[in-house]
Amino acid sequence: MVFRSPLTRTIAYANTGGYAATALKLAGFDALEIRGRSDSPKYVLVRGGEITLLDASPLWGKGASECIKLLKSKHGDVRVLSIGIAGENKVKFANIVNDAGRSSGVRHGAGAVLGDKRVKAVVIAADYSLRVPIANREKFMDLLRRLNSKIRGSPLLNRVTGLFSIYGTPLAVNPLNRFEALPFRNYTKTSFEGAAQLSGEKMNGTILISRLTCNSCSVQCRRETVGVSRYSFRTEGPDYAQISSLGSNCGVGDLEAVAYMNYLCYELGVDPIETGNILAILAHATERGLVAQDQGLRWGDVERMVELIRMISTKTGIGGILAEGAPSVSQALGDPSLSTAAKGITIQNADPRVEYGWGLLNATDNTGASAHIWVYPDLIYSFIDLLGEKSLVARIALNEYDKLASAVRYKQDLVAVLDSLQICAFSNMAYDLEDYVEALNVVTGWNIDRGELLRVGERIFNLERLYNEANGIVDDTLPTRFLSDPVPSGKNMGRVFPLKELLYNYYSVRGWEAGRIGEPKLKELSLT
Ligand code: SF4
Predict the structure, then answer these.
(1) pLDDT tens-digit series, residues 198-236
(2) pLDDT-based confidence at 15, cuts 50/70/90?
(3) Which structural domains are found in the chain, ordered by start?
(4) 58 alpha carbon to ligand 1 midpoint, in Å?
(5) CB count in 10 Å sphere of residue 287
(6) What spacing in Å lies between the alpha carbon of 218 and ligand 1's midpoint?
């Protein structure tokens, strides 16, 4: 879904993988455009090349699980993208939940956009007997065999032996903690003694019951977990970003509790990542005495976090303030420097004072600090050992700002084009640029080369920036705490994020003039 975010006011998109995009194609559409606002709750049914708007009054107020149950009982084997109570209440970081349990890439209030339109769900009935046209099917089958063998040969993505397949995105916890880049208690420390208790390794031995996957993917990086002692739930996730935001960043070291809160966020329709990071700001403010104890949150107090998550989704009490997003919350609590947001959205979740490539990426991304760490693992120093030759930063020293800027620019352009092709960017841990070029040519019958593919990505990236510029959003920065508050302890003690130096080099490799795209670049990209 592409939209203007109520949280960041930037261009934004929501991408959760799964099966919905393929189902939409097999229901007769490449894309849907939803305009205007209904007077009463509706859901959109897509079936057989037709779109019908149906009454959603019986679904209004229902959570993700119940919503999908009711819709499947009525329409059979369908894919469901639905909003929860938070979306109905237009919480600025309300999400859309994909088939009742997945919203990792939905961080910008997509649920509030649908809630504002009074659209409860998009329901897609695919005709699985249909085949998507492919320009050269024989070459396509050859290509599939070659690409599958690359996945099988990957130490990360092989279904049986690949570390990313085995542990999913929570694989990130231990390396980030070892490198001391893991957020703890609203980034007041960069490591956490209880990190192992939140790791993918811990999850596999406790709450994990199965691995899930997306359409036609053998990797199976998605997690399915259940409550095993204190909590009752069965849900997808949590992913690394939810673990670090609801877990370490809030001082919680109990993985089952994190998974339960993640489940609750899905049920209520609120982004668990933003929720966790905002609760961390509240706990930090409480510690500093800026909030009364009975209104605030103590580090690691899961019971109170559960209560606050419910209050956010209904905008009740202090939940009404928290529902406005990190900058508003920290402003309202009396200390804007507590915010960990750039362009209105909180960074997920590695410390930019330690990970400079990550910091530059989040400072300059068109959707704010919302990058997913496993989309850019090759920019993360903590992952060099995991990535091996696939790491872009393995041979770049931290102070080689020009090389870091080039690596960030390359990856941003590549991800822009992969996202627009609906290709999971995790595949880049096994595939190379040539593989995407060949796949696109074989499917479409085109004959483009690597430079042209990256050029498409560059045009997308610049076009998004133009949209933001037209809406007055031109700031490339990170929260002040990363620029002026040094890492307080540990092996990275004293480091800050060198924004000025990195931006200077980044603008140069982008061909922008003092941060603005400028006429020459616009002409070069045919964007005038
Ligand atoms: S690697 Fe990508 S497509 Fe495959 S299961 Fe994971 S998120 Fe889905």
Answers:
(1) 999 999 999 999 999 999 999 999 999 999 999 999 999
(2) confident
(3) 2-125 (3.60.9.10), 168-339 (1.10.569.10), 356-524 (1.10.599.10)
(4) 33
(5) 17
(6) 8
pLDDT digits (tens, 9 = 90+) for 276-330: 999 999 999 999 999 998 999 999 999 999 999 999 999 999 999 999 999 999 9
CA 425 to ligand 1: nearest atom: 2
Rounded to the nearest angstrom, the distance between the alpha carbon of 426 and the centre of ligand 1 is: 7
Maximum distance among all Cα pairs of the chain, rounded to whole angstroms: 68
**Residues at CB less than 6 angstroms from ligand 1:** 17, 213-214, 217, 219-222, 424, 426
Quick one: pLDDT band at residue 106, thresholds 50, 70, 90? confident
Pick the residue whose CA is nearest to atom 6 on ligand 1: 221
Tens digit of each residue's pLDDT (9 = 90 or more) over 477-490: 999 999 999 999 99
Amino acid type, 321 = I
> Alpha-carbon distance 130 to 305, whole Å?
46
| Best mutation site among 211, 213, 216, 375 for ligand 1 pocket (most ligand atoms within 8 Å of CB) | 213
Is the Cβ–Cβ distance between 98 and 20 less than 8 Å? yes
**40, two tokens:** 């009463």
Q: How far is the CA of 210 from the centre of ligand 1 (A)?
A: 14
Atom 2 in ligand 1: residue holding the nearest Cα: 424
Go through the chain and tell me how many residues it has: 528
- Which contacts of 89-92 are long-range, i.e. CB under 8 A and separated by 24 or more positions? 89/115, 89/313, 89/314, 89/315, 89/323, 90/6, 90/115, 90/116, 91/269, 91/270, 91/312, 91/313, 91/315, 91/323, 92/6, 92/7, 92/323, 92/324, 92/325
- Quick check: pTM over 0.85? yes
Q: How far apart are CA 499 and CA 482, in angstroms?
A: 9
Q: Which of 152, 163, 221 to mutate to test the pocket of ligand 1 (most atoms within 8 A of CB)?
A: 221
Instruction: Tell me which residue has its CA closest to atom 8 in ligand 1.
Output: 214
Strands of the sheet containing 79-83, edge to edge, are: 50-55, 42-47, 119-125, 79-83, 96-98
Rounded to an integer, the average pLDDT of 148-160 is 97
- From the alpha carbon of 221, which atom of ligand 1 is closest? 6
At residue 346, the 3 state secondary structure works out as: strand
